[in-house]
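Please check this chain.
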Amino acid sequence: MKKASVTEDYADDIWRSIEEMSFLQLATLALQILKLTHWFRPSNRFRPEEQNRLSPVPAH
């Protein structure tokens, strides 16, 4: 039997941890990852100047 690499052992530990999580824990973890990677952006109601700058229609 081939010995698993450290990376494979680490991945197995992560996968085992994920399998033991509840749905709520997984959802919370997913939301944290989205926020950290900026895939999730809340509405820009607190920064309207940025919304105007990104808008294709010029501001009057």
Summary: The chain is about 60% helix and 0% strand. The two ends are 71 Å apart (CA to CA). The mean pLDDT is 73.
